[in-house]
Amino acid sequence: SVVVCDAVEGIMTQTETVTRMSLEERVRPVLYINKIDRLIKELRLTPEKMQETLANVVSNFNDLIDTYAEEEYKEKWKVSIQDGSVTFGSAKDRWAINVDIMKKKGVTFKDVIDAYSDSGKVEDLVEKAPLADAVLGMVVKHHPPPHVAQKYRVPKIWKGDLESDIGKSILNCDDNGPIVMMIVNMTIDPAAGPVAIGRLFSGTIKDGQTINIIDTKREGRVQSVNFFMSNVREQVGELGAGNIPALLGLTEARAGQTIST
Asked: Among residues 86, 109, 143, which one ends one of the domains?
């Protein structure tokens, strides 16, 4: 999970809630500290004071991990500015930096402060350190791939028999196993109708496939398998375990339900 907090407000109740929920399901958190522009424009901090403020936010966030993480993950999941598991920036202004971006692009805290002393330089900062590059780079570096994460997450979040064929398939994120997908969101496409979005834990789902909607004890037919690229839905034909498909045609499905073969 990417936990977002305000650079000025620090760790708030909502930050604690989402962090606790992540850790309860063995989802590794990384930290994005937003609204760095407020430290400059409102508080007028020096580069040194800015670093001190950010270090305090990180320390308080790690206290949450100490409080809520299982013993095995308390130390290994703590975030650090030095290893790049903390990113800071301004979502409103569309820039972000972390230690990897700073080394690669040569951006410093002084550069950030200077950018806000001349409004025209903020766009230069966006070009040099775009928000997406920093946040997605952090996610790729610090979040394990599905076939790794499911091995330690599934025993915590699934109460079925892990020694069964379906249990082993889910644990191993097996493309060749039976379909097991948890629907987490239903949206309406004005042109295509209901879109069922969820995590595919096992199997490969394809256009035209008939599946079971477990909670309703009904069958459904997948009209098309899609994948969201940002807010753009792309039809892909099929997707394997570990992906987040967006399925058309499942008019009976609802968020929170499981579909399977």
From this structure: 143
Total of domains in the chain? 2
Contact 196, 207 (CB under 8 A): no
170 and 133 both lie in a single domain = no
pLDDT tens-digit series, residues 184-243: 999 999 988 999 999 999 999 999 999 999 888 889 999 999 999 988 999 999 999 999
pLDDT of residue 132: 95
Residue with tokens 């599934």: 154
Do 136 and 230 lie in one domain? The reply is no
Do the domain assignments include residue 154?
no
Cβ(113)–Cβ(47) below 8 Å = yes
Q: Let me know: does 130 contact 22? Beta carbons within 8 Å.
A: no
Q: List, in sequence order, every beta strand (DSSP E) within 2-122.
A: 2-6, 30-34, 86-90, 95-97
Residue 171 has pLDDT above 80, yes or no: yes
78 inside domain: yes
Instruction: State both tokens at 238.
Output: 């099929």
The residue that leads in pLDDT, 56 or 45, is 56
Burial of residue 11 (number of CB atoms within 10 Å: 0-12, 13-18, 19+)? buried
Full domain range(s) for residue 100: 2-143
233: Cβ contacts below 8 Å, ≥ 6 apart: 189, 195, 226, 227, 246
| pLDDT tens by residue, 112-122 | 999 988 767 89
Where is the domain boundary, 143, 176, 211? 143
